[in-house]
Each structure stands twice: as C-alpha cells, then as structure tokens.
Amino acid sequence: MSVEAFALPLATPLETAAGRIEEREGFLFAARGGTGEATPLPGWTESLAACERALRDADEKERWSAALAACEGAPAARHAVSQACLDARARAADRPLYRELGGERECERVPVNATVGDADVEGTLSAVETAVHAGFETVKVKVGARAVAADADRLDAVRSAYPRLELRADANAAWDEAEARAFLDATSGLDLAYVEQPVPGVDALARLTSVGPVAADESVVDAGVDACLDAGVAAVVLKPMALGGLDRARDAAFAALDAGVTPVVSNTVDAAYARSGAVHLAASLPDPAPAGLATGGRFARDLVPDATPVRNGYIAVPRGNGHAIGGSAGE
C-alpha cells in the first residue's frame, strides 16, 4: 500500500463558503493493484490533515475491511480506500469498474449537464447558447447571488429561447424559505427539472416540496439520504467523495430509485481518478440522469490528462479494466 500527496492548480479559483480555493490538494491511495483518490473539500469532508491521518492508518492494515474501518468518519479517505479496493477487484476480474459496482448492462457513455454561473440575462443566455452548441441537453443555472426576481428573469429567458432544454437551477442554500417560495412560484411555469438545495436544512426543504420540485445536495451529506427521501424531494445529488465512497453513493442511489426519486451523480471538483470513478458509478445505474461531472476543465493541470472528456453532452465510460485511466499508481 502507498499514499501519495498531490496538489493541482485550478484554472479559475473555486469560491466556497469556507473561502477561496486555488488548488485541489489530496492523495492517491494504492494497494494490490488498485488506486483510489481522496480530495477533501472544506465544508463537505474532513480536513486535509485528518484525511492524511486516516489514510496513513489504513496504509498499515493488511485487510481491506480493516483499511476501510480505519477511515470511518473521514469520508474522503474512505472514498480513496473503497475506490482502490473496487479497482483492484475489477482488474483482477478483468472487468470495468461499473461492472464491479454491480452494473448489469453495457454502458458506453453517460449524459452530463453543463453549469452556467451567475450572470445577467444576456450573459446567461450567451453561456447557455455555448453549452447547447457544444451538445449539452441539460443545463444547470446557478442562482442565489442576485435578487430572486432577477434570477427568475434569467430562467424565463433561457426557457423562452430553449423550450426543449432540460433546465435545472442551483441555489447552494442561498435563500431563506420566503425567498425560495418566491422563486419557485415565479418559475412554476418554466418546467424546471428541479431547484437544487434552495434553502439550508432538510426540514426547510420538506416544507418547500409542495411548492415546486426541489433537490437535496448539501442535505444529503448533512442529514442523510433517507431523511431527504422522507422530505419528499424530487432528486438527490450524490457526491461520492462526501458520502464516503462509490459503494455508499450507489447504495444511496438505489434507495432513491426505490423511492421513485431521481439520483444525480456529481462531484466535489475532484481530480481525474475520482471523476472517473463517478462516471463508472453513473454507468452502473439504470438510465442515469445527466450527471454533474463536466468539471475536468476547472483544472489547469490534472493527475491524468483528458481522463473524462466531454463530447456532445456525454462522457465516454473509460474503456478497460478497473477505472481504466492512468494505470495503477505506483505501477
């Protein structure tokens, strides 16, 4: 087993509630021919130092079960160990990672959404036009940075220009309940797929589900997927790094499917190995919803170049055994 640190510069800084992030730091965990990635993100996972401690502890274990147990309470670390285990087993069985996860059908590619940041109406339309011309059929528009009415106008303009586009909005818990209700009311005729995490807290989400379609993102990590399903959300956004691994994210996805709720695979601006794993996770699901995985372009430099390129609104599932990118760390 081995633990290798990395630091990757972002093409543009990432603004989070915990502050500005200009590079993504993490670790590759390699064992028995498999590789996994741990890329902690403040506010979503354990700290970088706590992640390293958990991985160093796991590195001393002889069995996968003991290595995984060493990472309890450190979701990014557990993600790395779990992914390495799945990758090693898939390679040994000569099959792709999505098959090792339990995927029952052949899958060559998964659909992904484009993300449009905050801008005025003109800027939003321009960004959506670029995404549509690139082949995206689903676009997520970031909202919450300006007045509710102004954000509603942005979505109205997009819907008028692109009546068949699958359209999502993401507020990143920026609103209180009154603001969220106002936005849901104002956009009720726009056929939005959902508004992602309009308010903080699963109880507040539950009170909004009668107003319009809402999705849980942060609340999946904070309260658990079962609480979000009980709240009546339309979709759950699943970020394997924050949930403690591909295996746990897949369990959450099937809990959602069993409840008639859409699981949407996403990521926490992860590097190449974790993004590849998330693509395999989406590929392992029946009829996966467009995933939030078109984030490779956020990196100025990655662990593996062009590991999950987006073409015409899809990412091809990496071909080969295991996660099928870059070989195994240490090879």
UniProtKB/TrEMBL annotation:
Cofactors, names only: a divalent metal cation
Residues forming the catalytic site: K142, K239
One Gene Ontology term from the biological process aspect of the record: menaquinone biosynthetic process
Keywords from the UniProt entry: Isomerase, Lyase, Magnesium, Menaquinone biosynthesis, Metal-binding
PANTHER family: O-SUCCINYLBENZOATE SYNTHASE (PTHR48073:SF2), O-SUCCINYLBENZOATE SYNTHASE-RELATED (PTHR48073)
Protein family per UniProt: Belongs to the mandelate racemase/muconate lactonizing enzyme family. MenC type 1 subfamily.
Protein name per UniProt: o-succinylbenzoate synthase
